[in-house]
Amino acid sequence: MSTPVITRFAPSPTGHLHLGHALAAIEAFDMAMERGGRFLLRMEDIDVGRAKPEFEEAIYEDLEWLGLSWESPVRRQSEHMDDYAGALATLDEMGLLYPCFCTRKEIMAEIEQSRTAPHLLNQGPDGPPYPGTCLNMDAHEVKNKESENAPYALRLNMKKAMAVVGEMSPLKWPALTWPALTWPTLTWIDKNKGEITAQPEIFGDVVLARKDVPTSYHLAVTLDDHLQGVTLVSRGKDLFAATHLHRLLQALLSLDTPVYAHHNMIKNEDGSRMSKREKSMTLKSLRESGHKPSDIKELVHKNELYTND
Ligand code: GLU
Predict the structure, then answer these.
(1) Is there a single domain that holds both residue 147 and residue 169?
(2) How far, in Å, CA of 132 to CA of 204, rounded?
(3) Based on the domain organization, do 22 and 158 belong to the same domain?
(4) Atom nearest to 9 CA in ligand 1
(5) Atom of ligand 1 nearest to the CA of 236
(6) Same domain for 74 and 111?
(7) Which residues line ligand 1 (CB under 6 A)?
(8) Residue 243 included in any domain
(9) CATH assignment of the domain containing 5
(10) Residue 95: is it exposed, middle or buried by C-beta count within 10 angstroms (0-12/13-18/19+)?
């Protein structure tokens, strides 16, 4: 017997859903229903300053209006901080995390000043890769900063993480040097593009626990998909690069790897990408201006979801 398909829609209740969200939600729902599977809804509300109960309520209202149904209870990330802390503790025991006290401004200044690392100015998926300022901070200095209660983020030591994954691999990889040409091969299956080789190193030493929130989008989403048994992650192409990193976290934390389907972003009539800030395109305003759920489904399906570009 084949395992059932489990998909999810994972909005952040920090604003009203727009047409792009409708596409993601309808796609995940349809993919589960077509295969007799299960559809889950998850509130990605770790951003405590921005997530609001009224937006969560509005999400339920919009999805019900679209005719979607989901399993209860809905997982709220803010209620599972212990899970993320556990994963961070595991990575810390593996020696893969370090505290970073830098402000965004300091990081940018450091990158701009650095003559030896001009490549760092090339944008990584979440901005320029971290220049490593706090990586080599000695234990004494770290203690001092901590005793001053200086806020810090936790970063993944990417070079070490890649080496650890290399060690875990049943094949022994050549010793890794930085920058290495011989990364261990981690792959995932993209439903439309086939096997993809993960390139998490494009993120550099990524933040896994923020200064203001003791987790991050990348850690929480990867752990939750595993804990909820999600087998097929459908999400927009804007998150394609994130999957490189999520695949690495799965390898480090021994988590399952779902299949991924990265759909095209919804386009305006003229082919330009629709902005999330486009107020007139929230489901609420579309509903209030007389649109029917069938109009939304038609608009969503008019977009070619999986053209390769
Ligand atoms: N919470 C993310 C968003 O609203 C989506 C995360 C995901 O699908 O992986 O953009």
Answers:
(1) yes
(2) 9
(3) no
(4) 8
(5) 8
(6) no
(7) 10-12, 44, 221, 235, 239
(8) yes
(9) 3.40.50.620
(10) exposed
Q: Which atom from ligand 1 is nearest to the alpha carbon of 221? A: 9
| Number of domains observed in the structure of the chain | 2
Is the distance from CB of 87 to CB of 219 less than 8 angstroms?
yes
Which residue segment(s) compose the domain that 271 sits in?
1-78+266-303
Domain identity same for 68 and 212: no
- Token pair for 174: 């050549």
Is residue 67 within 8 Å of 74, Cβ to Cβ?
no
Q: Could you tell me the distance, in angstroms and rounded to a whole number, from the CA of residue 11 to the centre of ligand 1? A: 5
CA–centroid distance, 234 to ligand 1, in Å, is 10
198 with 241, same domain: the answer is yes
**Residue 163 corresponds to which tokens in the numbers above?**
């080496």
Over residues 60-108, the pLDDT tens digits come to: 999 999 999 999 999 999 999 999 999 999 999 999 999 999 999 999 8
Q: pLDDT class for 306, splitting at 50, 70, 90? A: low
* Neighbour tally for 77: CB within 10 Å: 24
**Nearest-angstrom CA–CA distance, 218 and 242:** 7
Indicate if the pLDDT at residue 116 is higher than 80. Answer: no
Collapsing DSSP to helix, strand or coil, 2 comes out as coil
